[in-house]
Amino acid sequence: MKIQFSILLVSLFIFCSLTNAQWVQSGLTNIRVNTIVVSNNNLFAGTNGNGIYISTNNGSNWSAVNNGLTNTFVRALTVSGTNLFAGTYGGGVFRSTDNGSSWNTANNGVTNPYVLTFAVSGTDLFAGTESAAGNVFRSTNNGSNWSLANNGIPSTVVHAITFSNTNLFVGTNGVGIYTSTNSGLNWSAVNNGLTNTYIHAVAGSGTNLFAGSEGGLVYISTNNGSSWSGTNVGSAASTFYTFAFSGTNVFAGAWGGGVFLSTDNGLSWNAINTGLTDTDVLSLAVKGDTLFAGTLNNGVWKRPLSEIITFADVISVNSPTHFALEQNYPNPFNPTTTIRYSIPEAGFAIIKVYDMLGNEVATLVNEEQSVGNYEVDFDASGLSSGMYFYKLQTDNFVETKKMLLLK
Q1: Owning domain of residue 193
Q2: Number of structural domains, the chain?
Q3: What is the pLDDT of residues 124-135, one digit of tens each?
């Protein structure tokens, strides 16, 4: 979320942030955290041998939610509608329909139980696995059944899988990046410009696609994977495992390098590791105004996004004179969109998203806010196509607008 102040206040804020900002440990001490996701305004962390933990208070406290989870080596978590999925190392796929309170196996058709990564688009769910016994599987019914979807991908480990501009991309162990334009029926290599084909992370933001590899390299493609350009970001010993996005900010996490920030779509990067004593970062997630990192040896860390705000985040210097809720952009969108709004008087602000039936699907803002012009991003990766409503509510103002998700 981005707050607009006068130039003087912004300059002072940034100066103070840069001099005092740092990461703080946020629980699960001495535990390896492989993956972090946000679901129903809660945080979920998948760990290596300790199962799944939930935090309902922004990482201040965590509790185990392993009822029915017979394999506690959790490598991947994802949200699909009202379902939460866990990929385990040796136990295949588990599904929760009650926000993690209980888990059941969802392995029908999964012939490789070593699940490392997920991607979701509508009711389509894809799982990437470790070995040659089928490296990509697809479910069209929320995990009830799975089928192989790896035609064209060599026998290798699939470390990462993502959707970008309706196409699927996978990052593999030694054979680079492959894409599918027909929901996984066929795949083809898109390695033009890659100098390292050991790809551990792939993620899309707008028209840009990012890939992280071994050797401290981050690649970017602006043409849907047709070509890639690389940047040396970390040391030669760094391996990039994860990406996260907040507006125009791109965050990259590396084993052996910590967390890096780019404010210019991947052209340049800066380490933001002050206070982070475990720089083996395996997972990143943005929840509201906070960035979370899962580490190899010391659990979860967090840092307010406001501490790393830059001048690129400031849209105007004028204080608003009236309440306003603007139309989201882009609209229609897939899967992320931005909502701008104005607060002319300090107070408590809430922005929630609802489906056509009036069911709440997301809380984007729920906090005291100062006078200012704001914007917040909405990620609908786990939702189905359709019309949604977003509502801004304060003590003296209520307004609702429509937005259209097209996948």
Answers
A1: 22-311
A2: 2
A3: 899 999 976 669
